[in-house]
Amino acid sequence: MTVTVTTTPTIEGRTISEYKGLVAGEVILGVNVFKDIAAGFRNIVGGRSGKYEEELRKGRDGAVAEMVELATGMGADAVVGVKIDYETVGGQMLMITASGTAVKLA
To answer: Is the distance from CB of 74 to CB of 23 less than 8 angstroms?
Structure first.
């Protein structure tokens, strides 16, 4: 079963028949010293840090996947109102959280 994930509160053309509840997925990424050094060099010359961007994508995808797994377990067809947050934890780690409302569609 495919679960639709959207940042909007509704899904165009579909009716929400039941609200299953809040779902969230969290991923914590450790900061690698060597990636920090490489990112620092890139910042000096004005480039982008491809390694950081890749890690952020992996973290975001992991948080969304965990959220969808929980929604599926609740019998949901979709997750609406999704929000993704990034926070530092202890100065050495990055926490990525995806949260939304699991719903059943008519």
So the answer is: yes
